[in-house]
Design brief:
Layout lengths: L5 E6 L4 E6 L5 E4 L6 H14 L6 E6 L2 E7 L5 E5 L5 H14 L9 H4 L3 H11 L4 H8 L3 H8 L7 H9 L18
């Protein structure tokens, strides 16, 4: 079952940071601050990839609750969770994220919300009757990059991903910033 998670970028005094919002609007993950918007966007791309892998979560207990960290394969912390009152609720949150995270290039793109980036690119490429080589050429990216994209490589350049997505009328970008006060 796919749920509609979304990333929101906020700009504060220390820089740009992102939050992953659950379908109910609750913040489930928060990043550190990045000095540039591009750095923040790259962190979102990495988090999107790593969040689908249960082994990338470090479960924690302490300070009156249960929490978790989302880590990259190199051990770098990408984001921290909120604190949960029970171990069961924390584990349920991890399971829901790993099963439900998806890219949201446009708030109204309902079909794309329920697809992974890999599924979307493969489906659109096949629908257009293109080989990987033909799509790579049309998008102005290398065949190796397209193969790595469709095979689910964990780290890819967001600008090149967008070159491919633009051929299908989409792009990967952060969700609009909420006008609500930041309570993280």
């Amino acid at each position: 079952m796919h749920m509609n998670y979304k990333f929101e970028i906020t700009k504060g005094t220390p820089g740009y940071s992102w939050r992953l919002k659950a379908p109910n609007g609750e913040t489930v993950l928060s990043s550190e601050a990045y000095t540039t918007l591009k750095g923040c966007e790259q962190s979102i791309a990495a988090a999107h990839i790593h969040a689908t892998n249960p082994s990338q979560y470090e479960k924690r207990q302490g300070n009156g609750g249960y929490s978790f960290l989302l880590k990259a394969t190199n051990g770098e912390v990408l984001a921290r969770s909120q604190t949960y009152t029970t171990e069961q609720n924390r584990n349920k949150a991890i399971l829901q994220i790993t099963n439900g995270i998806g890219i949201i290039p446009e708030p109204t793109a309902e079909r794309l919300v329920s697809m992974t980036l890999i599924e979307f690119v493969k489906e659109r490429r096949k629908k257009a009757g293109l080989s990987q080589g033909e799509l790579a050429e049309k998008a102005g990216v290398g065949i190796r990059f397209l193969r790595e994209l469709e095979q689910g490589k964990e780290t890819l350049r967001l600008d090149k991903i967008n070159q491919v997505l633009k051929l299908f009328g989409h792009e990967m970008r952060p969700a609009p910033v909420s006008s609500e006060p930041d309570n993280i």
